[in-house]
Amino acid sequence: MSPRILVVEDEPDIAAIVVDYLRHAGYTVEYQAEGRAALASIVAAPPDLTLLDIMLPDSDGLDICKGIRNDAQFAQIPIIFLTARASETDRIVGLELGANDYIVKPFFVREVIARIKLQFR
Q: Is pTM beyond 0.85 here?
């Protein structure tokens, strides 16, 4: 069975592109546009990897990352931030909170897929 990826992204156009490319790369993909729904999804059926935006309409991706890392049941799920927040401070905070990788928008989808593959090695 292919790895299951949860994409948490509030911009529908970006989400559609990422989801489409991931499916074509052979992954099973679930999509959520809001943080609370993403957390509920993680609890109901933990993904093999989470691709997480920071700026979401109902919550902060940094808080979601922190919550995942603080729960022993989900702490090992790889998290890759995919965000427009590009400052050095933002990147450092994301990584220090436990993200496995940090990708800044705009991005190349093939690079995102390559970074995801690294997490599954």
A: yes
